[in-house]
Amino acid sequence: MLTPRADACPPAPVGAAPAGSEARIGQIGGEILARTEDASAVFGSHWWEQQVFSWTLAHPQVRARLFRFVDVLPALASSHDVAGHLRSYLLEDAHELPRALELALRLSSPGSPVGDIAAFAARHNVRQIARRFIAGETVAEATDAIDGLRERGAEAVLDVLGEVVTSDAEADRYTRTYLDLIAALPGVHVALKLSSLDPAFDAVAPEAARAAVGARLRAILRHAADSGAHVTIDMEQHDKKCLTLEIFRAILGEDEFRGRADVGIVLQAYLRDTAEDLEELLDWVQWRGTRILIRLVKGAYWDLETTLAIQRGWPAPVFGQKWESDAAFEQLVRRLLVKRELVRPAIASHNVRSLAATLAAAELYGVAPSGFEIQMLYGMADPLQDALVDRGNAVRVYTPYGPLVPGMAYLIRRLLENTSNESFLRHSFADHSPTAELLASPMAAGRTNPAVPTPRSVDSEDDMAGLSFQNEPNSDFSRIETRAALAGALDCLCGEHLGKDHPARIGHREVWTGDWIESFDPSQKSRLIGRAARSGVVEANEAVAAAHDASRGWRDTPVDERAAIVRRTAGELRRRRFELAAWLVLEVGKGWREADAEVSEAIDFCELYALSAERLQGTARVRLLPGEANVLLQEPRGVAAIIAPWNFPLAILAGMTTAALATGNTVVLKPAEQSPIIAAKFFEALIAAGLPDGVASLLPGMGEDVGARLVEHPYVALIAFTGSREVGLGMLETAAHVGPGQTTIKRVLAEMGGKNAIVVDADADLDEAVRGIVDSAFGYAGQKCSACSRLIVVEAVHDRLLERLVDATRSLRVGPPSDPANQVGPVSGAGAVERIALAVRDAGEPLFRAELARDDGHYVAPMIFDRVDPQSPLAREEIFGPILAVLVAADFDEALTLANDSDYALTGGLYSRDPEHIERARREFRVGNLYVNRGITGALVDRQPFGGSRLSGVGAKAGGPDYLHQFCEARTITENTLRHGFAPEELR
Q1: Which residue in 104, 197, 302, 425 could disulfide with 216, CB within 3.0 to 4.6 Å?
Q2: pTM of the shown model
Q3: Which of 9, 163, 236, 785 is catalytic?
Q4: Alpha-carbon distances, residue 735 vs 277, 542, 710, 720 (angstroms)
Q5: To the nearest 5 percent, what fractions of the chain are helix, strand and coil?
């Protein structure tokens, strides 16, 4: 809710106009609408544009497909490609198009004369539409647009398109574009995005972002001062908002810039916390002593913000209904007008109700027309602009400028605004809604419109019954308190808890063997994280015996009691979230976000497997016939050996362990020797959750003794392993032998890594592809089994992609992950450094090798090898490190062939905007987890069940609906209920 200060406005209900204002708002709004009787021209005078808007308004499916076509069009090199994409996107819904266009579309096969004509027409007409919303591609064209606006009595604020930057080189070019624009157009007003001044712009590392942005922004501000230009900072998505405001205040509060009034910032009314942000800005301006401009907009990312909030499990930062945003907008307008001595209000809207409310409030508070601006978008609602100019209001037009190719994202956003169901332009000019309805107060709309339920997905009957699993939300590092919590946990561990000794455990009993596994921080190799009592064969035998003794009692424990313990374990992990994330940062070199996400994943495994065990074992499958009862039970296998990896030492350990425990198996845990301390912390959570003594044991030790003994022990019925292919295949071979005293055939679950490929098609969105490749290949120093190690690029896009990819990789910061500004941390240890060096020794000179500025940790420079032979070891063998092999394909067919040419089949990715190619990849790109138009790491429990085939593993999907079946064996019980010709009544 928006609560104004006492000095803000006359007392009024939140969002409502002051008493008596509604009549004046209606009068002003009516006058404006009367001046725009010919405003149907808002949708353009050209037949093509009229048809586009007509189709999209009437057919949402056509709208989505058409806009996707417009998005990919700039990447298409030939008429053949244009015609092919046009048919792929629109042919399915061609029956909804006008008959003439439907017929033309069906005849426009790629390569045909009609296809060439259709391709030419599509390019020409889309470019014409773009010209309406984008002022020009050159300074001369932008100057003409500005002159045209001035002839109509309006001014301009220029926004440079192509703001997505993936490297420091691109950020420098973006900065230079603004410097050149300011130099060419003295006195110009410009708007810019701070994220375009730093490719790593991220709230998790505010100081680094401030340093990178500050250097470039200061140059722009100095140049603006010399030429009399005005600079406004645009607002972006909510997760960038706080950082944007923080940097704006920091830079403009410096002595050099504190006296500058030629600066401004944007606020978005649809955000629930904008009223609070405004008050903080007003307090800051009071301290600063110099007035600024504040541009108030409704907000352009509502769909994105709500979708991301649902995906992340976070509260939506935006108001759920349009009337709420409209009410907040009017409330904020009044606040800005009241505080005009501190700010120059720039009110941005095409909604006549909002504009009329602004003008009525200005009259009420005695603000002259010159005391504030009305801002609108270039190419939209020209009649409204003219009407306001005629009334004597100051009108400034937000004017995009730059190449049309990167401007396509902007164009689509404008098209979506024009055709949205909630669009004022649609209601007023296309739907011809009544004037009274158009000018009704937002509060009245709120009283008459029912609440809109929060969007969510429903995947099954369980979801509809409210029994569905929900992923644990990751922490929001745009919030200062979240960053402080993890920073505090790191400080606490470093100050009090490093270097301590941790026991092995047989059941709850602590075991001190007198021998140690020492765990060192891979980013500071001399810093001891802790010591764990090293177990051996003797302890392995004792732990298996204890598990065997406890097996029957745990098996017969009701599943709901077992599930409750696993859920309490999740609660312990949740309670210790930041402590555990800090251990992950220090012991295995994970970055802040990845460490936090791993804690979420561990919690998810606990919660999902508790629920899944109840579903699997809570109710037996029963088939009844007269005189016969048949029951199918899922029972535990017995003793499970859990052999976990070091790269996900909490999540995978927790997942394999709780899957076994929830289904009634007893467990012996053998963590990786590189991460025994994190394993000890997880075992503490199990004990705190109430796990009975003997049901689980923890044996830090070496794989060649403890691991080998667990695999061959006759009492071990199941082995769950994640690790290298060599070790996994050895386990499978050993487990296949039935030794003395063994009474069961061992089940082995083995996930053994991959040689994962991302395919980049000729029409890929390179902004998205570069970021996804960099994250997938170099995140966590390439040490995820799902990491991208092969990049398969269609030749047509190779040079453009590699140039940007190299620049983006060069911009990565390598260093200790305890500093969240570092994007690439260390590898696991000295052995890993040596293995990676050996793997690339004969690979030739890389296209790019990052520079390393430190040697205090186990760091490996990110490397890119170009045009690698598909049969070379670099292209075929798994390398656990930041090494990327680039393979080139002549076309998409060859790219798919290369992608499938691997012994592994774990993860894979495709960047493409060709619907037919995407569908082919679904059928033919044979990997366990295929990702389309996103990175290939970061699978979420239950959403993307994880596991591969071929030599990547046995196909068990961790976090999937069938995973727990691997930990059980089925038993059928049949009872003959017929006695001397009689059967129980209920079984007849």
Answers
A1: 197
A2: 0.93
A3: 785
A4: 62, 20, 10, 12
A5: 50, 15, 35
Closest CA to 540 of 658, 659, 683, 697: 697
> Cβ(830)–Cβ(858) under 8 Å?
yes
Using the 8-state DSSP alphabet, how is residue 497 labeled?
A: I
Residues of the chain above pLDDT 70, percent? 90
**Catalytic pick from 170, 751, 788, 878?**
751
Task: Count CB-CB contacts under 10 A for residue 305.
Answer: 21
What string of DSSP letters covers 134-198? Answer: S--SSHHHHHHHHHHHHHTT-EEEEEES-----SHHHHHHHHHHHHHHHHHSTT-EEEE-GGGG-
Identity at 156, one-letter amino acid code? A
Which one-letter amino acid corresponds to residue 445? A
Q: What is the spatial distance between Cα 928 and Cα 754, in angstroms, rounded to a whole number?
A: 10
β-bridge pairing 528-533 and 516-520: antiparallel
Q: Which helix (H) or strand (E) holds 971?
A: strand 968-976
Predicted local confidence at residue 124, as pLDDT: 82
How far is Cα of residue 721 from the mean position of the Cα atoms in its chain? 29
Tens digits of residue pLDDT in 398-449 = 999 888 766 777 777 766 665 554 554 455 444 556 778 788 888 877 767 6
DSSP helix/strand/coil, 282: helix
Tally of residues, the chain:
988
Structure tokens at 64: 């989505």
Q: How far apart are CA 404 and CA 438, in angstroms?
A: 34
From CA 761, how far away is CA 917, in angstroms rounded?
A: 9
CB-based contact 124:137 (threshold 8 Å):
no
Token pair for 177: 């574009």
d(CA 898, CA 757): 9
Angle between helices 382-390 and 21-34 (to 10 degrees): 110
The pair of three-digit structure tokens given for residue 634, joined into one six-digit string = 């899922």
Tens digit of each residue's pLDDT (9 = 90 or more) over 227-254? 999 999 999 999 999 999 999 999 999 9
Cα distances (Å, whole numbers) of residue 698 to 101, 610, 676: 69, 21, 10
> 751 catalytic, yes or no?
yes
| Long-range CB contact pairs, 940-944, < 8 A, 24+ | 940/471, 940/601, 940/604, 941/469, 941/471, 941/601, 941/604, 941/605, 941/608, 941/655, 942/469, 942/471, 942/604, 942/608, 943/471
Question: Is 94 a residue whose pLDDT tops 90?
Answer: no
Mean pLDDT, range 901-928, rounded to an integer: 97
Helix orientation angle between 206-227 and 238-252, rounded to the nearest 10 degrees: 60
Spatial strand order in the sheet of 628-636 = 621-625, 628-636, 968-976
Which residues are 973's β-sheet partners?
Answer: 631
Cα–Cα distances in angstroms (integers) from residue 977 to residues 449, 629, 630, in the given order: 61, 7, 10
Identity (one letter) of the amino acid at 666? T
Say what the pLDDT of residue 73 is.
Answer: 87
Q: Measuring CA to CA, which residue among 425, 378, 167, 409 is closest to residue 301? A: 409
Containing 374, the helix (H) or strand (E) segment is strand 373-377
Looking at residues 384-399, what average pLDDT do you find? 95
Q: What is the pLDDT of residues 490-538, one digit of tens each?
A: 999 999 899 999 999 999 999 999 999 999 999 999 999 999 999 999 9
785 belongs to the catalytic site:
yes
Residue 155 has pLDDT above 60, yes or no: yes
| Residue carrying structure tokens 């803000």 | 8
CA pair distance 484, 44, nearest whole angstrom: 52
Alpha carbon dihedral 314, 318, 320, 321, in 10-degree steps, equals -170
Both tokens of residue 767? 């902004």
- Strand, coil or helix: 121: helix
pLDDT, position 455: 54
Q: How far apart are CA 45 and CA 423, in angstroms?
A: 20
Would you state the structure tokens that stand for residue 822, as one six-digit string? 């570092």
- pLDDT over threshold 80, residue 53: no
Q: What CA–CA distance (Å, rounded) separates 814 from 825?
A: 6
Tell how strand 639-643 and strand 628-636 pair up: unpaired
